[in-house]
Amino acid sequence: MRRAVTVHLLTVTGALILVTVLVAGASWVFARGEAFRMAGQTGLAVTDVVLGPLSEADLGPEATVDRAALTELFHPFLSSGVLYRVKVWRVEGDEAVVIYSDVPAVEGDRRPYDPELAARMAAQPTVVAMVPQTPEHRYENDQADRLLEVYRAFTDRAGTQLRLEVYVPASVAATTRVVLAHALPVSLAGLLVLSAATLPLAVRLARRVSRIEADRSELVRAALEASEAERTSLARWLHDGLVQHLATTGVIIDLVLGRADQLESADRRLLEQAHALADEDLTALRGKLGELAGPVVAATDLAGVVEALAAELTRTSEGVPAVTVQVPDDPELAPGTRALLLSVVAELLRNAVRHAAAETVTVRVDQGPGIVTILVSDDGQGWPVELTEEPGHAGLRLATAAVEAAGGRLRLLPGAAADGTGATALITLPRP
């Protein structure tokens, strides 16, 4: 429950940050477009007024510019704050030169003729641009973030190519702040309302998932208990039925063999063979009974339980491997997880005893945040190439299915020996 609420809050926080970034970006784009639009309209309105007198003047290379007349023409716009700066450029070959400005110090400044700018001015009435940080804008650099340039092409009465450049106050940053002040609270409030409305749904969903996980764990536990009960029941049936019958059969054969003088030699040999087969089957069945019934374990710590399990599984076999158990810290496990762990370890140990021809087997249990890992490795002949098709390996397939049903994973890995032999199984199970 607490984890679900934490995940929901983290998701909402991430969404708030994302929405803030997106709204800020969209606001800047909108504000920039709006600032350019307003600056273009202002520049167009101003130039419509002043281009009449400018077009009638003689501003060619041989003429003397009437500064007083031009200052008087632009004064109303500059003094009212509609314009911040004015420059009139004359095109001279591959250069443009300032022939008038409200700042006389820039008159005579030259710069290369810009064909791209000329093409844009030919295609539209005005061209709006940001103020660049260049030496020719040395008197506007400190206000560059609050100004936009507006260009308009015109000719004087002699046909001289001229450019009127006016600087219009327009702050993209200020416009962005205004847009954000209106758009961001609405966007964030809507998202917060939505997150508050969906929080109960998220909590209910988390509870449902938790119940499903608990039900699955309970099913795994019940399946393991049922399997263990079935094994115990089968062991009891074998002990009380077939084992006793075989033992009785052996006794009867012994009694018959006691009358050796009444038997033909061939019959005696058959009875001796039957007696040997009965003894052999009885020994094998008693060994299976030990496996089916499971070990009687007095230890309560996991290391002791696994050691007892290994001792019981190897007690009735010849040439069995030496089993080493390493459990540095006894992990806290739910009963179902503990039972599953022991069941899987038992199956892997049985596989090492029956199929691997191993000399040593190592069982190591480690724990981490939220998980417990079990490593079972041996120095035997390794896993079969086609494990799922090999007879006698159904237990491994069932163990894998049980681990996966409990939310874990069982991986069959190559051995660690230098020649590539051996086998390793790595089990990962969730724990509280």
- The rounded Rg comes to 47 Å
How many strands, which pairing sense, and closed or not: the largest β-sheet?
6 strands, antiparallel
Count of domains? 2
The percentage of residues in β strands lies in 15-25%
Strands side by side in the biggest sheet: 3-2-1-6-5-4
What is the CA-CA span between the terminal residues?
Answer: 14 Å
Secondary structural class: alpha+beta
Estimate percent helicity.
55-70%
Q: Based on the structure, what is the oligomeric state of the protein chains?
A: single chain
CATH topology category name of the largest domain? Beta-Lactamase
Note the total helix count: 8
Helix and strand pattern: HHEEEHEEEHHHEHEEHEE
Low-pLDDT residue spans: 295-299, 388-392
Tally of extended strands? 11
CATH C-level category of the largest domain: Alpha Beta
Quick one: CATH superfamily of the largest domain?
Answer: PAS domain
Mean pLDDT: 77
CA-based shape: rod-shaped
The CATH architecture of the largest domain would be 2-Layer Sandwich
GO molecular function: phosphorelay sensor kinase activity; protein dimerization activity
Pfam family, one: HisKA_3
Protein name: Putative two-component system histidine kinase
Domain Histidine kinase: 233-432
3D structure, described in words:
The chain is of the alpha+beta class and 432 residues long. The chain folds into two domains: 2-170, 2-Layer Sandwich (Beta-Lactamase), CATH 3.30.450; 297-432, Heat Shock Protein 90 (2-Layer Sandwich). The chain contains eight helices and eleven strands. It has helices spanning 2-56, 67-79, 115-123, 172-257, 265-293, 302-315, 335-356, 394-405, and strands at residues 85-92, 95-101, 110-112, 127-130, 147-155, 161-169, 322-326, 360-368, 371-378, 409-414, 423-430. The strands form two sheets. It has a six-stranded antiparallel β-sheet, with helices on both faces. Strand 5 and strand 6 (161-169) form a beta hairpin. The longest helix is centred in the middle third of the chain and has 86 residues, at 172-257. It starts with a helix and ends with a strand. Residues 295-299 and 388-392 have low confidence and may be disordered. InterPro entries: HATPase_C_sf, HATPase_dom, His_kinase_dom, Sensor_HK_TwoCompSys, Sig_transdc_His_kin_sub3_dim/P. Residues 233-432 form the Histidine kinase domain. Keywords: Kinase, Transferase, Two-component regulatory system.
